[in-house]
Design brief:
Blueprint: H1 18-31, H2 34-48, H3 50-57, H4 61-67, H5 76-85
Length: about 100
């Protein structure tokens, strides 16, 4: 019997428009997990093109890769620049209880 071949799931492959990216980031933000949010920003940046996002955010591509991984812990200013570079905006809403 042969074994089935699989490949790792990459959510970046499914983030092909602004609406899906915004929904993905909204879900990530709702977790309240900073590492997950940083990783999600990295996934979105890969979906959009890491080099282009780095250019728009005013950071090097290598720095962006380091900052936007699950253990990256980017500065908030970097997060804001990346969010703007992705064509997104952060907003606040009352927390659901």
């Amino acid at each position: 019997m042969s074994k089935a071949k699989t490949k790792p799931f990459d959510p970046a492959e499914y983030l092909d428009d602004s609406e899906s990216i915004a929904a993905y980031m909204s879900e990530a933000l709702e977790t309240g997990d900073p590492a997950f949010v940083a990783d999600a920003l990295g996934v979105v940046a890969r979906a959009r093109g890491m080099s282009e996002v780095a250019k728009e955010a005013g950071v090097s591509r290598e720095s962006l890769y380091r900052a936007l991984r699950a253990d990256g812990n980017p500065e908030f200013a970097t997060v804001l620049r990346v969010v703007r570079g992705l064509g997104l905006q952060l907003s606040a809403a009352p927390a659901r209880r």
